[in-house]
Amino acid sequence: MKLKQYLAAALTAGLLLTAGGAEAAEHLVSGQGLPENCRELKATVAKSGPLLLFSDSPEMVYQKGVLYRDVVQGDVRIFFHHVNAMDSNKKIAVMLKNNQGLRPSEYTIKKKGLGAPSWNYMYAGKTSQQEYFAGQQQPESGTLGFSRSKELLTGTGMLLAPGKLLVGTVDLHLSRPVEISVIMCDLKNDLELFNSDAPVLPMDEHPLRGSFQEADWQYNIKEPIAVSKEQPAMLELAASCQGFAKGTDATTSLPAENYGNYGVMYDVNFEIGGTEKVKLVLNPLGGLFAGYGMLEHNGSRQLLALPGNSLSIGDSYDDMLEVATLEPGKYKFIWSPPGASNLPVRLYWQSAAL
């Protein structure tokens, strides 16, 4: 996802819950180069989870229309990332429509994260992840009769001023096939009528949309992690050499690839061996980065702002954000590529005695 010029902004973030055995340890180290003599960890990768509908092309929306559309059922995750590039306020909406048969479809909206619409793209992406990862949300369930519609974001869509970006993630379950559409229209437009009549807009020069099976990727590090002062450990994530999710653009039936795996959830399962504490460190190797993640340990969770003391990191290739200090034991780091951020990223495990 290309990164544009952005305005300076401040974002304050806090921990909701504390994962036992982990201490918040945010500290940015920069200008010292990347760790040398690293041991690259080996992990098995298992893919499962919902169907991902990814809507990011056209990223800059210059005319009203349908940005992405597919007919789906079961567990579904919608990830969208769009800028209003027109000269007046518009409305962005995600529509469910039961037009696949006479029988009603049950739906449950499990979780969503909607960023604050902003001219600052990093801020829009980061606030979306903050809401998504922040904690338990009350599910919303309902029934769609034949030809009935439901707007998923607020019930009436969201206003998007010229030049502003909105990033959103919605997890839901559908009992029967339902058409899902991401649309942008005038404020005065009736959403149901517009959704029925509007054209599907072509992609821009960046082919970033499509439907992708198995949007949860679980990395299981094979052996307990033991590090020394002389040799840290490292795992790279969301790198092109590892391959990205492949699927189909439902609007054209052409093959699609999710360059960056935006909307994919990564679960990194690992164990700290030995008896010494270890620092968990994030390096945004690709450039500017602003997001959130979760750390699980012994049944409790810690919300991680990446970073928390500033909007973003990655001004330098060797920015190293210490995010937690870990006692020996088993952990899970949950993370997803944030909208507007750059990839790949690296996780380092370093001796806390440094």
Report what the structure shows.
There is one protein chain. The protein has helices at 121-133, 191-197, and strands spanning 22-29, 39-40, 43-48, 51-55, 60-61, 65-84, 90-97, 105-114, 140-144, 149-151, 158-160, 165-186, 209-212, 216-221, 233-237, 246-249, 254-257, 265-272, 278-283, 291-297, 300-306, 320-326, 329-335, 345-351. The strands form four sheets. Strands 4, 5, 6, 7, 8, 9, 10, 11, 12 and 13 form a ten-stranded mixed β-sheet that branches. A six-stranded mixed β-sheet has the order 1-22-19-24-15-2, with no helix packed on it. Strands 3-14-18-23-20-21 form a six-stranded mixed β-sheet. The protein contains two helices and 24 strands. The protein is elongated, with a radius of gyration of 21 Å. By secondary structure, the protein is mostly beta strands. The protein starts with 21 loop residues before the first strand and ends with a strand.
- Write the element-wise H/E pattern from the N-terminal end onward: EEEEEEEEHEEEEHEEEEEEEEEEEE
Ends apart, CA distance between termini: 36 Å
The Rg value, from CA coordinates, equals 21 Å
Quaternary status: single chain
Residue ranges: pLDDT <50 for 5 or more in a row?
1-18
Characterize the main sheet. 10 strands, mixed
How big a fraction of the residues is strand?
over 45%
| Average pLDDT metric | 92
In short:
By secondary structure, this protein is mainly beta. It contains 2 helices and 24 strands.
List the helices and strands and how they pair.
Blueprint: E1 22-29, E2 39-40, E3 43-48, E4 51-55, E5 60-61, E6 65-84, E7 90-97, E8 105-114, H1 121-133, E9 140-144, E10 149-151, E11 158-160, E12 165-186, H2 191-197, E13 209-212, E14 216-221, E15 233-237, E16 246-249, E17 254-257, E18 265-272, E19 278-283, E20 291-297, E21 300-306, E22 320-326, E23 329-335, E24 345-351
Parallel strand pairs: 2-15, 4-6, 5-6, 14-18
Antiparallel strand pairs: 1-22, 3-14, 4-13, 6-12, 7-10, 7-11, 7-12, 8-9, 8-12, 15-24, 16-17, 18-23, 19-22, 19-24, 20-21, 20-23
